[in-house]
Amino acid sequence: MKLQEVLAHRHFKEVFSSGLKTFALDITHGWEALKYGDPKVSFSSIEKEMYLASKYLLREYKNKNITFIIQNWEGDWIIRKSFSDWLKDGVSHDWQKSANLMVNWIKARQRGVEKARKEIKNTACKIYHAVKANKVLDGLIGIPSIASYVLPRFKVDMASWSAYDGIKYGNDNGLKMYRKLQYLKSQLAPSDYMKGKKVVYIGEIALQENSDMANSLKKTRKMWDTWMAVYMALEAQYVFQWALYDNEINSAPTDGIYRNKNLKGMWLIRADGTKSYTQNYFDRFNSRMSFK
User: Fold this and answer.
1) For a disulfide at 79, which of 51, 98, 155, 257, Cβ 3.0-4.6 Å?
2) Is the bond leading into 243 cis (omega within 30 degrees of zero)?
């Protein structure tokens, strides 16, 4: 199934017409096939598929003030063979081959988006392409990563961070988060379309509400206040919470019914349907902001 066909599915169309203004889409099409040498997939075919998908969105939503950001899933995991901790296990001997492949894959995707934007100009819809990193700390200490090796090798619209390695549970003063986001921003070479503006954002983050470090509204508020101060100081454009409902399991229930205690608590809505501490924080935060 082509990417354009997926985006045109009725489920996506319902969500895109829900009234929300910004969508960050984790799209990693073509990577696995390219990595394993599928003869049907090439940089040209990836560019074409991204072009057709972007053109579809720009045309389909031309009368809507809506923004789409196409990003990859967590890039550092992509260039590794598995969820490998290169700090503990050592860097893979063939890391550069995978990293260079990703460089060219990202370039092809960016070309596709740019081609669609140049062609479809009479539209209220906006579309951007971002690179998503998730092991920014590794780059800071000399381990090959998206931030240190991949990102500086091309121009791209935006950079995104799955920021779990920026969390310091307990007494978090925000310095860890600030240092890494600042580093990611310094590594970004914005596309010509961005007119010199470096846009970074938090592509994914969450607190584990069922851990001792975030099991109260007070603790959650303190963590989020610290992070939001960092994000605003560094002009992070967006912050995306993982997730609406939690998919991370602590323990399997004996009766097959998942309750709050069975999950880690990375949610906005708990298993019992109540709002999480994070959602309560967002409600309070948004009520104090003026959105235009």
Assistant:
1) 98
2) yes
Q: What's 240's DSSP letter? A: E
Say how far apart CA 155 and CA 134 lie, in whole Å.
19
Structure tokens at 16: 């895109």
In a 13 Å sphere around the CA of 249, the CA atoms on its Cβ side amount to 6
pLDDT tens digits, residue range 121-144?
999 999 999 999 999 999 999 999
Q: Is residue 285 part of a domain?
A: no
**Is the residue at 49 inside a domain?**
yes
Per-residue pLDDT of 179-217, as tens digits, reads 999 999 999 999 999 999 999 999 999 999 999 989 999
First to last CA, the chain: 38
Burial degree of 154 (CB within 10 A; 0-12, 13-18, 19+): middle
Tokens representing 105 are 């894959």
Beta sheet of 158-162, edge-to-edge order: 22-26, 67-71, 126-133, 158-162, 199-205, 239-241
Instruction: Look at residue 291 and tell me whether its pLDDT is greater than 80.
Output: no
Token representation of residue 68: 């789409």
Q: How far apart are CA 74 and CA 71, in angstroms?
A: 9
pLDDT at res. 292: 42
Rounded Cα gap, residues 199 and 93, in angstroms:
33
Distances 257 to 88, 210, 248, 252, 263 between C-alpha atoms, Å: 37, 17, 14, 9, 11
Total structural domains in the chain? 1
Residue 196 falls within a domain, yes or no? yes
Tell me if 30 sits within 8 A of 109, measured CB to CB: no
Rounded Cα distance, 265 and 248, in Å: 8
